[in-house]
Amino acid sequence: MMRRMLASIVLAAACCGAAAPPGLITVSGQLLDVASGFAYFTTGDAFRLSPHVRIVEAETGAPAVTPILPRTYARATFAPDGEIVELALSKTPLPEAESFRLVQRFAVSLSPTKPNPALAPPQPNAHGYLATYSGKPVLVTFMVRVPPTTPLTATVYMATDASGWNPEAIRLERVDALHFRIVERLRSGTVLRYLYTRGSLQSEERAENGLQRPPREVVISDATVRTIHDVVYRWADQSASGELPLPQTIPTPYNPAPFPNLPPGMPTPHPGR
Questions:
Q1: Is residue 84 part of a domain?
Q2: Which of 79, 171, 199, 241 is deepest in the core (most CB within 10 A)?
Q3: Is the full-model pTM beyond 0.70?
Q4: What's the rounded Cα separation, in Å, for the pair 152 and 43?
Q5: How far apart are CA 242 and CA 147, in angstroms?
């Protein structure tokens, strides 16, 4: 009964052009929708409607014929308990009433506030670089330090997954006795897996413990230039001391050349010979 009386008082005040009665708060804005007992405004707030809410035309106070569409102009009148007792609709902007700050305490939170991921700053990925990928070309320098046992006449290559692990896919330039490098133009977003070799699968790099190591992996993120520093601890065809291993492997159809360091012209050893 009280809500019906408030709605009647509000309607009479609107028709006479008078201000809202004491205790009522009136705000003007734009609607997104009215549904399921709530009014949704473009401010992002949702407010509960009174069960006896009156939806009228702002100019005449007559029952509303203006359709409620996104951005429909509206004047909302709130009762002291926070429910909207009247919505006055208009096709044109309405004079500014009281501030929305006065009714913020009546807003109904339907879901927790979360930042828009499209507006959030980019976060560093596992490699410490901002994970933003536009596909633009990036100059990437690979600088690798090889073990001191590497022959001075050796040539170092990169075998990559993009080349089918060809051991001579990318040839590096020697910088000094222990360093080689190559500059590649790669697009941001590229995921490159690679290993260093001396030109064959038998002379590819090994892990620090001497065992076969998994391929290196790098993700190219947006940047102008980037330098990647790698270290090769040992080669597969060298022992920990750097000496070449003694022939102890029997050739098989799957590994027909287990002795890649034999002098030129020497026949491949065979069991029993």
A1: yes
A2: 79
A3: no
A4: 71
A5: 9
Distance (Å, whole) CA 242 – CA 236? 10
Cβ neighbourhood burial of 159 (10 Å; 0-12, 13-18, 19+): buried
- How many domains does the chain contain in total? 2
Type of residue at 71? R
Cα distances (angstroms) measured from residue 6 to each of 14, 49, 107? 12, 13, 20
Nearest 5 degrees, angle CA 139-CA 144-CA 145?
Answer: 155
pLDDT band at 56 (very low <50, low <70, confident <90, very high): very high
Q: Are 234 and 240 in contact (CB under 8 A)?
A: yes
97: how many CB neighbours lie within 10 A of its CB?
17
Residue 49: inside a domain? yes
* Two tokens, residue 181: 């490098």
- At residue 110, the pLDDT reads 53
Q: Give every CB contact of residue 262 below 8 A, 6+ residues apart in sequence.
A: 268
d(CA 55, CA 33): 13
> Structural domain of residue 84, as residue ranges?
2-106
Alpha carbons 21 and 86: distance in angstroms, whole number = 13
pLDDT, tens digit (0-9, with 9 covering 90-100), for 12-44: 444 444 445 567 999 999 999 998 899 999 888
What does the pLDDT look like over 155-170, one tens digit per residue? 999 999 988 999 999 9
SS3 (DSSP) at 8:
helix
Phi, psi of 229 (to 5 degrees): -105, 125
